[in-house]
Design goal:
The chain is an alpha+beta fold. It is built from 4 helices and 16 strands. The strands form 5 sheets. The protein has a 4-stranded antiparallel beta sheet with strand order 4-1-7-8, with no helix packed on it. Strands 3-2-5-10 form a 4-stranded antiparallel beta sheet, with no helix packed on it. The chain is globular and about 50 Å long.
Amino acid sequence: MNEYLMLELVAESCTAEALVNGIPVSRSTPGGYLQTQRPVHEFLMSTGNIIQLVVEPGPTPGKAEQARQIVSETGISARISFRSMPQGSYPEDPDVKNIASIDFHAPAGTSLPVPVVRQAQVDGFPWLPKLSWLANPPIRLTPEITERATKLLKDISTALSKGDPEPFISAAPVRFNEIAAAYEQSPEALKSKFRNQFKTVFTKPGFKMEPLDSQKLDLRLCGKNNIIDCLDTEWEPVLRAAKLDDGTTPIRYPVKLAFINNILQIVR
């Protein structure tokens, strides 16, 4: 693949999220100037894509849309830039094409109702494969569905804790197939890369998986309310490694679940 569709999220003195077609793909938190840039082919459709900037979502994933009032004491700003970038290029390169941007700024002292949501539509990607969940109806996080999702996540977490990535891979055929198609790669090559990367990290001193705590689980619906975003109350992916002594987290798997043929699967 010679060209990538890249989304960059930049936030200053605020928490901000970037969503593509209703699915969270990037998040920045306070602490000064932060930025996140990543390719987003696997979240895009051929046309009618909605890119959203969400400034100051609620305190937890389950309360992300909770309305409240804040005062911007120092001023806040956030920006999404959506670009087409040749492989190996930088945003300043002349061959980079700026497709869309979304900006938000609030001066110091502003009283602000949050979350603030801004969006833009982008089109023109006919080569992208169809997303498997598009036709899925909305779901509700009933106790039954929450229990099914929790069991799946716990089984995968337990296996990863033992150094076994196969249950993750078995639960994610759509994830590997569609990401491979979106980036013109082989599903088997992606699975092999996943195995090798996990096994490399697993064998490093001090590595262990963070135990999945059901009390901290904070699933939220995204997409068209037909995808389950698997986070905890601290906005961390529930499938992740425990922090090392230096404070770093070796791996995070921010998985999204959806029903495919009535089976709950990892789709991203």
